[in-house]
Carboxypeptidase regulatory-like domain-containing protein (Dawidia soli), 709 residues
Amino acid sequence: MMYTLQTSLPARLLTFAWLLMLSFVACQNDDTDNPDKPLEQEDPLKPRPAISTRLSGTVVDESGEPLAGVTVRAHGQTVVTGADGAFLFSEVGMPANRGVVAAEKDGYYPAIRGVVPVKDNSTHVRLVLMSDAATHSLDAAAGGDAVLANGSGVTLPPQGIVTADGQAYSGTVNLSVRYLDSSSPGFARVVPGGDMLARRADESTALLYSYGILRVLLTTSAGEPLQLAPGKPATLTVTIPESQRATAPASIPLWYFDEDAGVWVEDGSAVKTGDKYIGTVHHFTDWNCDDPKDRATVIGEVVDCSGNPIQMGEVLAGQSSSDIGNYVTVDNTGGSGQTEFAITVPAETPLFVMVPKPFGLGTGEGGDLVMVPVPPLSPGQVYNVGKIQPHPCPSSASGSFKLAPGERVTSVAFRVTDAGPNEGLGNGVQRIFNPPTAFSFTPFPPEATLSMAITTSSGAVFTKVFETPAAGQNADLGEIDLTDAAGLVTAHGVASCGDTPLNGAAIRASWQGGNATATSNSVGVFSFSVPANTPVVMSVTHEEHMETRSFQSTAGDTYALGVVDLCAPKVFENDFTLNGDGFVNVLHTIPVQGDEGVALGFYSENEDITSIVVQNAANTLSMTLEFENFGVGQRPASVVRQAVVGRNVDDQWTFYVSDPATETGSYTVNVTKYDGPGGRIEGTFEGTFYRDDTVPVTVHGNFRVHRAF
């Protein structure tokens, strides 16, 4: 028995008791479909012998945007995410019952998840990084409170902070305090560990039922880590979500997250005081207020409109009527033949198993979560919920690839570019590795526009955009011709910061009708394939640095990009020449380097206007231009807006203005370079300008600015 709920989350929660009552009736009348299956439970935290798997996934931020340059580690191997946030371990060994995957990037808390690998096939994981930006600052000598808006927080003891090497610290303490609401639908995606497995004080394994988590990070003003001093405990206050207060016990164990093992570890307890749990801790990491439970298992299958297993998706489980505490990914892309999902849930607890719509965020808002009630299960019980169909019924796409001899498709990545009538769709990429030449992909949201990035074994990337049909229908994409790969050129270069090669820089190249991504290796080298004789815009990103270049690929096997120095000071030479009003072709140069002066370009998509703003550090020369459209090419007087050049002598500004809209002068612009955000806008301008609307001068000049957006 399943239910499709499309209302808001609060409205869904009011129906829980009714749904649960119906589920009990269904179970009593349908014991043959869902028999108790006593299971001799093995301890998932006692590693079984290792197996080999292909591990893929994506890393996103809290808003669902892909993150590039993230370091991902799995059992002794390391890779770095590309521009689309994707990563791949072609083969990694991990314990057959549970592996651990970790993702790290400066500015974020690490994301660590337990996964159950698929032997000799594909295992997929999605990792969400949370910002670790400082929320409070305290004096280490005085200590004090760092309290969030909901009342959760920490109290630091006076003179109770030490550096990483154990030395007493007396300066400013920056705190990042983040509260994880266990009643939030997004809880399962960000909770450390992912599967809520924990090691109890008696070394037994439990599954946790959370009443709230605090993530706490202490650093110096320079970003160096700090910790509590021995014998100087801190007070931890965690607000209990409103929907869980009635069941919250009077006291509850505290658990910290062991990042190396990827599990929660019991350490101390907290006491319920009003609507909060209060306890003491002796070190800071992620702290969890949890009731330990025995484990049960729910199995089932997610299918399309025809009853066939879907290829990719998610299944979520709610620990109670209002929170989603665990989830697993569905990945049937590798042809393993194993189409059932299995998700570990707390025993003796009523819950839902939920399936989001295709590409959905699974928050329940904007809705369309299919929710299957599950009654309280006995420890070790395996409960089969049968087949679950997402709502709306997903659409599919089929076709075939036409390939050059010796070529094959290594991956296909899908992203929603226009949600159409669908609400609550995510921004992430869903990727299928090594698809067959004749393909059929599902599930997709109906009546949406998707971008399909096809990567071949030669490294070529082809992009096809298509619209999905109505619910339950198939889009016939026909034969997709990928034979133009023979005309590709390998562009290569080195990413650096000064003389230091950059490992893990994310490279993205785009051109009319296609794009490519790459990641620099340990010596900064990167390469990607582009069509010959094609204008290309390339961006190279590493942490807070970004450089954008435009180039024209040539015929031949390779194209050398040289060294791309992301840390080189940006030097922008701008100038204008005045002829008239006492000037005879007098050149005024405006040098701008680094933070000395301003040389910026902006593009407003709403107004379709490009703006150029230049001013020197001495505040003696300035120049502004506005013109329609973006991209290279001529801008006649009919599409330019106001332009102003100015001189400041003895704190007296003189401005020369050209504004075709008011017939005060006239000028033209020729844009010779127009990069993406982070790159450059360059060109020339010339025309007639006026001082005080009466004195004409002839002006011509050059601009070279950094494009901010």
Notes: The radius of gyration is 30 Å. Helices lie at 9-14, 16-29, 187-190. DSSP finds three helices and 54 strands in the chain.
